């Protein structure tokens, strides 16, 4: 895991980055690896890939963070990327794998109300996706909205959103 994280830091080759991110994502399926990746500063390395110009690299980074977000301590670090993930949802091509990967991460990060406030500005776009997205996109955005709606503090933001 340490070598994969170092490889991500050392290379600009998108194909190598994708493969390293896929491997890290698969490794994150095991809870012991989630802690190891965090302790090796892997979350910030992977999070840094969210600003990559290659959509597939961003997508793979989102998938890795999604798997890593199953851990509360990891969520505390991943939360710093929520607004950037929301921007990825809005700037990604409609119904793209990149958009869906970002929505899946937001779904996990919105299970508890701790980080809902970071998603407020994207609520109008989430609602837009309900009318414009494919069924897969609609289902994923509904998961985020259901999580947000479970928080009474979000009620006014959800009801006042301009669609």
Automatic annotation (TrEMBL):
Keyword Mitochondrion belongs to the record: yes
Main location: mitochondrion
One matching Pfam family: Arm_2
Gene3D superfamilies, sorted: Leucine-rich Repeat Variant
Subcellular location: Mitochondrion outer membrane
Domain of life of the source: Eukaryota
PANTHER family linked to this entry: ARMADILLO REPEAT CONTAINING 10 (PTHR15712:SF23), ARMADILLO REPEAT CONTAINING PROTEIN (PTHR15712)
Protein name listed in UniProt: ARM10 protein
Protein source organism: Rynchops niger (Black skimmer)
